[in-house]
Amino acid sequence: MTVQWENIAFDRSAKPPVPMRLYESTAKGKTPPLVLYLRGGAFLDEGRAEPERPIGKALAETGAVVLEADYSSVSHNVFPQAMECAFMALDCLSSRRKQFGGAKSLLLVAGDEAGGNVAAGVALKARDQMPGQLSGQVLLSPMIDPMMATRSFRKADEIGMGERWAAGWSHYLRSACGFQHPYAVPCLCSRLSGVAPALIVTSDDDPLRDESVGYADRLAASGVSVRRKIFPAGCGWTGIYRDGDGKWMESLCSEFAGFVQELSA
After folding, report:
1. Of 61, 235, 263, 264, whose Cβ has the fewest other Cβ atoms within 10 Å?
2. Given phi > 0 = left and psi -120 to 50 = alpha, else beta, which region is 222?
3. Which domain does 126 fall in, by range?
């Protein structure tokens, strides 16, 4: 497994360039799926202190080439800069498919928690400005509803994240128009048709369960192909909010591999 950071300048106007961390393993084939991974952090965490991310490593072990974009330290986690930074990284990866995989490699965007929100916004913008380029989106308990009023949120906020998420939303949407923009709050988008197929993952004891499932339902109702996985309570899924792993890791890899196979069919 190779894990490293590299500063990739997208074009001359990209200052500063967005650092990208590369995860790849010997399991990759000639045309591995390429995944732009956006980490969580409640729109509050910045910097690259941790040596690697469990999810990025796990997806790479399935044979994918994963590039984690450090969108947060460059954009300071404010909309629209954070989403634009991530979209620029996706556009760069799309143009460099042969460098990291092959000309026919699938292109996916993935994110957990706050990164899942940004990934969903990037998928919407890719539909509008990169038609046909994005193969799929992987949303892992996306932090997607700033109202934080779902039943699962009220019932299951026993992991002490409620105040942190509220502060994160306030920071991310501090611009006056942010709350109304579909790229900022994809769950409020009125036009979801045509967006890339989605794999959406959550768990029964996850505070973000209902908003994750609700977004999956809205995508499906709009004609988008959706694969969903809801882990049972107690499997350790909520450890993703603290960079931990659990009993779900192997199953997540299986779901991801199945999703890629569906996209390739």
Report:
1. 264
2. alpha
3. 2-264
